[in-house]
TrEMBL record:
It comes from the Bacteria. The keyword Transmembrane applies. Keywords: Membrane, Transmembrane, Transmembrane helix. This is DUF2834 domain-containing protein. The chain crosses the membrane at residues 40-61, 68-89, 109-130, 142-165, 177-193.
Amino acid sequence: MFFIVWLLLIGYAVFLAPGGGTDPIVSSIFSGDLGAIDPLVLAVFNSLGLFPLMFVTLLLLNDRQKWPAWPFALLSFGVGAFSLLPYFAFGSRQVDKKLRTPTWLVRFLGSRFWLIALMLFWVINTLTLLQGFSLAAYQDAFFASGLVSVMTVDWFVLWGLSIYTVYRFYPGAKRKSLAWIPILGPVLVLFLNKKATQ
């Protein structure tokens, strides 16, 4: 299933996403004219930096699978779900391995300090929306910008992967339904089930 989603995501990015000409959102980002970008577009763009932080936390706290998780988790900072889907498709099969993540890093990633920091990052990004946003403007950007189009699809795939990851690695966790809240939810599950992260 993950392999099929990966192929569909690549197919969408290459063949279906808007392209050609100058991407207006990319131009605004590189020129520093962030005021020209709808706050919802900015919030989604920024969240693609928060999802990898969350996946680094989830995957490294449970890195006992067939393939090491850290290369895929780190690559997700640049290419999002494009790097994580192959891991989930082929490398995340449960094997009898010792946790690869160093003890000091496990302690840090499972610490209240780090989990609260992730929550604060989410809150700060969400405050972007208080500037006022327009779904119509987002729709226009989606069809005009290849970046917005691909990152939107990528966002939904990352959201689904985060829910799957929580339910897979923490099946007995309290309030694991919170994982359905994008980014914040999985972090809350870890925070409320701190002993499970150690």
